[in-house]
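Hi X.,

You mentioned you wanted examples for the new student's onboarding notes, showing what a folding record looks like when two proteins sit in one file. Here is a clean example. The first protein comes first, with its sequence line followed by its structure tokens.
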Amino acid sequence: MRASSALWVFNALALGVSDYSVVATQDVTPPLQAQAPFAAGLATPPATPVPWAVAQDRAAKLVEKMTLEEKLNVTSGRLGPCQANSGSVPRLGIPSFCYNDGPAGIRHTDFVTQYPSQFTTVQSFDRKLIQELTERISEEHKAKGVNVELGPLTGGPLGRSPYTGRNWEAFTPDPYLSSQMSYIAIKATQSTGLIACAKHYFLYEQGPVCNGPPDGHGGRKDCQDAWSMVDDKTVKELYLPSFAEAVRAGAGAVMCSYNRINDTPACQSDDAMNRILKKELNFQGYVLSDFGATHSTAESANAGMDQELPRTYWYGDKLKDALKKGEVKQERLDEMTRRVLTPWIALGQADGWRSPSYTWWNLDDVVVIDGMTFLNLHEDNRRPDANDFVRRAAEQTHVLLKNEEDALPISNEIRRIGVFGSDADYPSTIAGCGEDLFCPPEEGRFRWNGTVTVGGGSGAAFATYIVPPIEALSLRGRRKGLRIDQVLRNDPAQYPVIEKLAHSVQMCIVSVSVFLVEGWDRDNLKLDNNGDELIKYVADQCAGDVVVVIHAGGPVVMEEWIKGVIFAGYPGQESGNALANILFGDVSPSGKMAFTIAKREKDYLPDNIMRHTPPKVYFKEGVAIDYKWFDKEGIAPRFEFGYGLTYSKFKLSDLRVDKEYRPVRDTVQQTNEKHKGKYDLYDTLYVARVKVKNVGKVHAAEVPQLYMSYPKSEKDQPPRHLRGFDKVFLRPGEERVVEFPLRKKDLSVWDVVRQEWHIPEGEFTFWGAHSSRNLPLKTELKIEL
């Protein structure tokens, strides 16, 4: 290994790595644009792609040259410098692949950017934002030498249950919005040359049932993963679309999940991996296991799992024994190896890629793992404008839910502000409380000391710094000559101080949170750290307006204290600066709810999570989850899907739906989904249009939405489905026409008898909307082909 290019050093026999080529980086920072603030551009040059068919051929020829042990090396996970590594084949130039999370920024290392979570960024309803943010995350993975990003999350969990501890890592419970963003995120990831791994496949809608919560290392005791009991129609119409779009976008890898699919572990489900993913969706990449999700050798290999990540080791020597016994055929091992190598070649990595420059979790300069020595170079590969971008991204994702007495933006008459709550404060440490922010609970609940900018577990990314609300508000106060006072503890012992302060200010800002973590689903939908009681006490004592800021990765029931509310999600490291800019009116809030907030916990669909053994979860509601459940059952939400206020006002008019054929042009990998009639399943057949006008006084953004109702013959369908959205920035008085293309699949339902997509007969209804419940425009038509 040449010293000039060696970025990590270890016993070569352990992983068989010889040498690595280095891709230089350059800064290409796009200019800030006022009307379209997110314009994608790459800071690091992408690898040179290779046509997929050529890559498959090159991979097959490599496989022909490989020994049995070398094929087992490629398909089996190993310990190494990364979160996971595969074995290598040095004599053929095949390195140990480096795998790393995650969708909020690269995990386990330093000098990286902590971006807003997927759950938060989707609240922007902004395709350009999702594209650029994903590209930036991928660039940082690439610069650290990662081959495969374990992300983005493309529907596992989708968000069936509001209690699921990992909902904050994913996009949204709506399959249309989730699939649109999943396509963009996969394509943006791979535009950099990084291999995207769509996860978690699939029906992974709750965490395990365990004897106690995870410890500070994520360890769990006496756990049993959930059994997702679901029917075919629900799978095809609700839980599969995001993975179908991931395949269409050309995803190189898919991760099988922990849960059982009906009665079979997901990573050994022949129906899920072979029949649906590889045949029906025509997925050409490889399926890899989640960590510890493998439960067998021959069964998993024959069912379609191509590679196992460590640390369960059902492949390797066990797979070798299964081959000798004839339980797995040699042809299957060859296919597994070819599938693993194909995206590595197709995305250009085989022709030049960086070596890992970091070590998993440990930030020491020299790290020894199982006798192997690794160098941690602490490289900083962030773009110069990374901080500014994160702030702008966070600004576009804050959702103004209620603006009581028009208290926001903060006027010049407000001179004295009180800030309350531990969530406004600095966290104890940037790394929080252990590996991946797995915070040990107190009295059965997680206690996060300080502002919450990201959740815990696989999706966590360590920030290089964090701007809490109190820092940004104090700085703003100094600049404007304001008095910013504070009580940053939620302890009732502080109530006498809170009472005195609240009586003396003109505005009270209460910052509260819910910290969600992988492996531990929520017990209720309340705030952490006595947050609900804190809000009620401050509201009772405050001499002025009350504004509540919520940092959470899921819904919060707020009927006990409903006041002015901003839902900030998990906004990443620039949290405080983004919040201050919105509070003081530098930026108009424009986020929209990508899930439903109920008035009562019991309003959510019943039996949506199991906490006992055996944890069999029956998806009896079919496709009616989130807002579709509320619509179907006639339940009034507190804040509906698609809802969000701005500092301006917008009007929709002139809804039209015209027949307009546009052949599909964005498919990277064609699926084999069966459908009735002519035209491709992803061809656009109709285009809906609506005018949106800013009738207020502030330059702001609105998200016009299109909802569709199927003909009355489809009795099992919820009342409405999202079928279009766009984010538009308009100056006062400005008007624009927004288009919503309607593809054949968008108009279709799944026929379980014929096993195909078809467009039902009868009149469709389309709604031009501000949200799923604010539907001012309506038109009906019969679809003609």
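Then the second protein repeats the pattern, sequence line and then tokens:
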Amino acid sequence: MRYSIAIPQLASGDFDADGLRSYLARAEQLGFEGGWVLEQIIGDAPLLAPLELLAYAAACTQRLRLGVAVLVTSLHDPLQLASAITAVDRLSHGRLDVGVAPGGSRRRFAAFGVDKDSFISHFTEGLQLMKAAWSDEPRVTFHGRFRDVDDLPIQPKPVQRPHPPIWFGGLAPKALARAVRHGDAFLGAGSSSTADFAKAVEIVRRELTEQQKDPAGFTIGKRVYLMIDDDADRARERVLAGLHRIYGGMAGVEAVPVSGTPKDVIRGLREVMYAGAQMLLFNPVGANVAEDREQMERLAAEVIPRLS
């Protein structure tokens, strides 16, 4: 099993630079494989922009891989996004993981100049153009439905070749087939339940077989929102408060977290592992960096040693 930790991203008060630097240093000391953020361009939660935060994290770390899950790439200009991703990959000396998804039909596509009837096509074509921009070719030619690029010089290139690992999100069968076709890994959303994740894993495994891709080269992971407390009822209250800070009143969100005493959390995480997760992305939902740091310490001391 591989274990990663969420990077505190809330910006409800002044930026806690000292706290975040200490958090990142401690995550490396504790042996976490990666530190991850998420994207919420439009929403009530005051979340710092993901790639910019990862660029900051790159300067504060030496070993920790840095991930974002997921970028709704249909809302971005592909060439500008490819350039930003390249910058973070180079600033981190090749430690970046990139999660992507087209976004659901409820997204406010009009705010980004995207037709909601063609957002899947926007997503697929945009990803193809980004991969072309990251290729070894010094000049890029690409003729698509939405972008027409002719002999453009694009430099520099990412450190990781042919590009940083591409993680896909999604739950629908077509989305999971797309993940296997175009991606390198799958990450179940924190806002999906363990039961829904288990169903998605079954589809991913079937697609790997049908598309003749090696399962050993395709990682399956899951973001897990969680809260540890010696009082299980208080843990439940704290984790729901944290989820509401991120998602507001989104329907179904109260069914997704793992919370309770260390024993309760171990049991919940084992269920995710048994459902097929090869990588667990622990996502404490504290109100600030200090609360997330306390959760990270408890995970390392009281939970992870008992998971294997």
